[in-house]
């Protein structure tokens, strides 16, 4: 549960709490998501006059509702809710990448491309390279072969010596590069 004392909160804590939403929705843990929504709501109400904290908390409530829809497998509602998340509070790359995946799966690759191209991650964000991979997938889906190949090449080169957890992404990028090379 989020603490409601604004003095104890930091950007890292808030973004980490947002990151947990994806984990819970992937496991369809609606109880944890409902508790998170209550926590974000309480934080929004007790932001202590901090407009920035209030905006983060409101984003947390909205993101939690989007993840709840996804956990319930209501992809239409999830797409609507993820698409309505403001990108002015944080780039929140995992949410943007997930939105793009949902749009692409629903045949809306052009809208997915627009979302992904609007985002410029900061250097410290570990999701930045996953954003590049998702841009490659969408470009591939849209038939933009040169762009897709360049992005896949970037991912394959960047992570060629990566930890085992990242090797499936490298293998995917290499396989798609071979396919595009034909």
Write up this protein.
The protein has 182 residues and is mainly alpha-helical. It has two domains: 1-84, no CATH class; 91-182, Serine Threonine Protein Phosphatase 5, Tetratricopeptide repeat (Alpha Horseshoe). The protein contains nine helices and no strands. It has helices at 11-26, 30-45, 51-71, 75-83, 93-105, 109-117, 128-141, 145-158, 167-181. Helix 3 packs antiparallel against helix 4 (75-83) and helix 7 runs antiparallel to helix 8. The protein is elongated and about 55 Å long. The termini are far apart.
Topology of this structure?
Elements: H1 11-26, H2 30-45, H3 51-71, H4 75-83, H5 93-105, H6 109-117, H7 128-141, H8 145-158, H9 167-181
Notable features of this structure?
2 domains, 70% helix, Serine Threonine Protein Phosphatase 5, Tetratricopeptide repeat, 9 helices, 182 residues, mainly alpha
CATH class of the largest domain: Mainly Alpha
Gross morphology is elongated
Helix content: 55-70%
| Most strands sheet | none
Mean pLDDT: 88
Distance between the termini: 52 Å
Range of strand content? under 5%
| E-strand count | 0
CATH architectural group of the largest domain: Alpha Horseshoe
Number of helices: 9
Backbone structural class: mainly alpha
> At the fourth CATH level, what is the homologous superfamily of the largest domain?
Tetratricopeptide repeat domain
Describe the structure concisely.
The protein has 182 residues and is mainly α. The protein has helices at residues 11-26, 30-45, 51-71, 75-83, 93-105, 109-117, 128-141, 145-158, 167-181. It folds into two domains: 1-84, no CATH class; 91-182, Alpha Horseshoe (Serine Threonine Protein Phosphatase 5, Tetratricopeptide repeat).
């Amino acid at each position: 549960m989020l603490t409601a004392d604004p003095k104890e909160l930091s950007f890292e804590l808030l973004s980490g709490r947002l990151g947990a939403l994806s984990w819970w929705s992937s496991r369809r843990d609606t109880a944890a998501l409902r508790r998170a929504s209550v926590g974000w709501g309480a934080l929004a109400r007790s932001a202590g006059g901090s407009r920035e904290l209030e905006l983060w908390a409101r984003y947390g409530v909205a993101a939690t509702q989007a993840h709840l829809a996804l956990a319930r497998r209501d992809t239409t509602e999830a797409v609507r809710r993820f698409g309505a998340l403001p990108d002015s509070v944080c780039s929140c790359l995992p949410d943007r990448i997930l939105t793009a995946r949902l749009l692409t799966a629903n045949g809306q690759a052009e809208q997915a491309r627009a979302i992904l191209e609007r985002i410029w991650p900061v250097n410290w964000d570990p999701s930045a390279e996953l954003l590049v991979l998702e841009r490659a997938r969408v470009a591939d889906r849209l038939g933009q072969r040169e762009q897709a190949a360049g992005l896949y090449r970037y991912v394959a080169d960047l992570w060629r010596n990566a930890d085992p957890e990242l090797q499936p992404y490298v293998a995917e990028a290499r396989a798609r590069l071979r396919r595009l090379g034909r």
